[in-house]
Amino acid sequence: MRSIPVIDVAPLRAGGTGSSAVAAAIDAACRDVGFFAITGHGIELPAFERLRRAAAAFFALPEAVKGEVAMAHGGRAWRGWFPVGGELTSGQPDLKEGLYFGLELPSEDPRVRAGVPLHGPNLFPAEPVELRPLVLEWIERVTAVGHVVMQGIAMGLGLPPEWFREHLTGDPVVLFRIFHYPPAQPGRWGVAEHTDYGLLTLLAQDGHDGLEVETSSGWIEVPARPGELVCNLGDMLDRLTGGRHRSTRHRVRNRSGAGRLSFPLFFDPSWEAEVPRLPGIDLLERPDPRWDGADLQAWSGRYGEYLTAKVSRVFPELFAAQLGRDVVGD
Fold first, then answer.
1. What phi, psi does 156 have (nearest 5°)?
2. What is the spatial distance between Cα 102 and Cα 304, in angstroms, rounded to a whole number?
3. Would you call 286 exposed, middle or buried from its count of C-beta atoms within 10 A (0-12, 13-18, 19+)?
4. Residue 180 phi, psi dihedral angles, 5° rounding
5. Between residues 262 and 216, which one has the greater pLDDT?
6. Residue 53, Cα to own-chain centre: how many angstroms?
7. Averaged pLDDT for residues 232-258
8. Is 136 helix (H, G, I), strand (E, B) or coil?
9. With contact defined as beta carbons under 8 Å apart, do 19 and 213 qualify?
10. Are 123 and 131 a contacting pair, CB within 8 Å?
């Protein structure tokens, strides 16, 4: 394999006879490499370009200005900016800076009033002023695409198209990130090798390559083509399907010589949802253990508990200060 599949999901969005062929293509990609790019998703390139320009303007600001919306000010909602090296992946500091966003919830929302982690208002910078509406629009539109892709995944598994929305994603946990990668440095990765720990990731890229995916024939580069959304499966979909759908290891190194922007949206199960294996699916015996030795089938509980425990390892010091031990129960 030299490239990930590119799938036009327009027939799936429209419904009708073409949906089955799209679902079959998605299913094949999920079983083979766990990554695919989609076109026909309905988000016009100018909408992405507006978001890209606003993000570039923010990251060009002095660190002292960006620090006005640092994650330390975001509280339990877990939103805001972090500097280069501030996030860990597989225990290693990333060569990137970023902005964390999520669904915009008012202070009177019951989950916010109860102090549920990762729920609350976003922390938007004063400049550029257009970033706020562009981010909120992007989250809404890409979340809708996430529901469409999950319909295709359901159909490929022989389930009704709305199975995931009815059982797991009726009120999805949606987390959105904007990452800025400076040019590569010797011995450092923008993001180290890892798998995503949720359900589905939908990624937009600014035209600068850097994403690499592990396949059965080795590591391959994923072209950064504006207008495409790159989809990859997280550990929870791997768990749901007993290993048939692949949560695939990937990494990032920006070799462009210029700054690189990426825009991943994580479309995950509802906070209170439990994530069992899908009905009628037995555990698949894999020839080799996972790269990190984890047993995805051994976990049980609510998705929110699982996600909070994972977040605690990404920013351990900030997590201890903002969310505390009472959240993870240890």
1. -65, -25
2. 14
3. exposed
4. -115, 120
5. 262
6. 21
7. 93
8. helix
9. no
10. no
3-state SS assignment for residue 72: helix
Q: Is 109 exposed, middle or buried (0-12, 13-18, 19+ CB in 10 A)?
A: middle
Q: Measure the CA–CA gap between 238 and 99, rounded to whole angstroms.
A: 27
For residues 164-178, give the mean pLDDT.
Answer: 96
* Extents of the domains making up the chain: 6-11+19-328
CB atoms within 10 A of CB 37: 21
| 324: its two tokens | 């505390």
Please count the other Cβ atoms lying within 10 Å of the Cβ belonging to residue 263. Answer: 22
- Look at residues 76, 77, 94 and name the one whose alpha carbon lies nearest to residue 85: 94
Burial class (CB in 10 A: 0-12, 13-18, 19+), 246: buried
- 273-285 pLDDT tens trace: 998 888 877 777 6
Q: How many CB atoms lie within 10 A of CB 221?
A: 15
Rounded to the nearest 10°, the torsion over CA 324, 119, 180, 46 is 180
| Reported CATH class of domain 6-11+19-328 | mainly beta
Residue 201 CB partners (closer than 8 Å, separation 6+): 230, 231, 232, 233, 234, 264, 265, 266, 267
pLDDT of 328: 40
Tell me the average pLDDT across 30-40.
96
Distance in angstroms (rounded) separating the CA atoms of residues 175 and 101: 6
More confident position, 68 or 289:
68
Q: Rounded to whole angstroms, how far apart are CA atoms 10 and 30?
A: 18
